[in-house]
Write a structure and sequence with these properties.
Rossmann fold, binds magnesium ion, binds guanosine-3'-monophosphate-5'-diphosphate, 6 strands, 167 residues
């Protein structure tokens, strides 16, 4: 057996935007309604098949709360791509993406980003145009997801894997 390349990716964004739910949906195929809040940092690994290669993603789930900021900084080290997740029903979480990006770039100088609007199953307060404009301004792509229905979830992690692999 060949060793698969292991690529570290980060899922960042405010608390309650759905980071843990997205990772659970992808890695375990389920959505749980009652769960504990992420404490500090957590990670899961998942094998991902891309067009011409299989990679292993180690997906780092960063607790969004301010009090974990010091802990988070060191955990960004070695990451190859980051998802900046916001909640489509909460404009504040969208506005904070620039801060998340800044925090990550404070540790890793260059990083491919993917902007993710989660909870697309609910009534949106951030338009596709707004989100696309922000993503374009940081040279990122934009994708919409629902951890509840699963919409866009494989695409999110496949895209991250692709960017992590190819840079
Ligand atoms: P976080 O890890 O970013 O802090 P969580 O966020 O994954 O803990 O999710 C926060 C809350 O949002 C959870 O609700 C979760 O069920 C809900 N949620 C996450 N993703 C979606 C989604 O795509 N659609 C909808 N409708 N809800 C979502 P609770 O009530 O358990 O706190
Ligand atoms: Mg969490």
């Amino acid at each position: 057996m060949n060793r698969l390349p292991v690529l570290k990716v980060v899922v960042a964004g405010d608390g309650t935007v759905g980071k843990t739910s997205l990772i659970r949906r992808y890695c375990e195929g389920k959505f749980e309604t009652t769960r504990v809040q992420t404490i500090g940092v957590d990670f899961q690994t998942q094998t991902v098949e891309l067009r011409d290669i299989i990679v292993k993603l180690s997906i780092w789930d960063m607790a969004g709360q301010d009090r974990f900021a010091v802990m988070r900084a060191g955990f960004y080290r070695g990451s190859r791509a980051s998802a900046l997740v916001f909640d489509l029903t909460q404009e504040v979480s969208f506005g904070n993406l620039e801060r998340w990006r800044g925090e990550i770039l404070g540790t890793v100088k260059e990083q491919p980003f993917l902007v993710v609007g989660n909870k697309v199953d609910l009534e949106r307060r951030v338009s596709v145009e707004q989100a696309n404009a922000f993503a374009a301004s940081i040279g990122a792509d934009y994708i919409e997801t629902s951890a509840l229905t699963g919409q866009g979830v494989p695409a999110l992690f496949e895209f991250l894997a692709e960017r992590a692999f190819r840079g």
